Amino acid sequence: MRDDVSVVVVTYDALPWLDRCLDSVRGYETIVVDHGSTDGTVELVRERYPDVRLVEQANLGFGAGNNAGMRLARGRYWLLLNADAWVVGDAVERLVAVADAHPNAAVLGPRLRNPDGSLQRSVRAEPTLWRLATEYLFIRKLGPRTNLLNPLYVGAFDHQRERESDWLSAAALFVRREAADAVGLFDESFFMFSEEVDWLTRFRRAGWSVLFTPEAEVVHVGGASHGGRLYVENLRGQIRFFDKHRGRRQAERLRRLLLWSLRLRTLAFRGARGEPYREGVRFLASGDVGTLLTR
């Protein structure tokens, strides 16, 4: 295997998928950054993967974990791989070939598959008030395969062809070190969610491109570590992105949009299914943008 690719995997109670993840990248420099797992993750890495460099640190967020790994990585390319994801076949070599052919691409995203083999749509558009409204008001349900009614998830995107994108799912990102050295690493003020949106936006605004390629595939389970339990962090991440890239006034408009959208959802969804929305309403109604981002 080549020595110019480093793999970074951030873990937090990553069983039972971690062994499949690490097996898929054997032979490449691999760094596992663990955030306090209590399920045997650390023991598994130590016992079964002695060649993997293990870093144990406090949980400062997904971006901070990846940053710790990237700072130690030696390769000119970095594969940031979720602990519940694994590469298919020679996907890493294919990503290198595509990256070498596109020297202006800062980040590549492979085609993602669900464990059952179905497509996991991974291409996204930069968030705007309208694009987020189509998500939170269920407008995208009216035309899930159109860019007009499902613009955030680029509903009409053809995952069979290579194309530049705004941003991509962080389940598997192939990063050019040269670009990261120029633009910087993840913004660690994002704990979890929207850190990849911010990062890839910064690459694009610095003149680099973000490229989706179907030449390589990765299987991604999805939500294995957080299990959907971090709904408020998702909201906070979206507000932080707006505050950083669009200003406080737009961020406050987003807070109000999210608040009223979730209030409508609490009317539609009762019981346990509605609890994340009720939690979101309590969070969004508890203060202005400045308060929510500093709490």
Keywords:
Spore Coat Polysaccharide Biosynthesis Protein SpsA, Chain A, two-stranded antiparallel ribbon, 12 strands
What name goes with the CATH superfamily of the largest domain? Answer: Spore Coat Polysaccharide Biosynthesis Protein SpsA, Chain A
State the name of the first-level CATH class of the largest domain. Alpha Beta
Q: SS-based structural class? A: alpha/beta
Following the backbone from N to C, one meets helices and strands in this order, namely: EHEHEHEEHEEEHEEEHHEHHHH
| Average pLDDT score | 94
| CATH topology heading of the largest domain | Spore Coat Polysaccharide Biosynthesis Protein SpsA, Chain A
Q: What is the strand content?
A: 15-25%
The backbone outline, from C-alpha atoms, is: globular
Helix content: 40-55%
* Radius of gyration, taken over Cα atoms and rounded to an integer in Å: 19 Å
Rounded to the nearest angstrom, the distance between the terminal CA atoms is 46 Å
Number of strands: 12
Return residue spans where pLDDT drops below 50 for at least 5 consecutive residues. none
How does the major sheet shape up? Answer: 10 strands, mixed
What is the CATH architecture annotation of the largest domain? Alpha-Beta Complex
Separate helix tally: 11
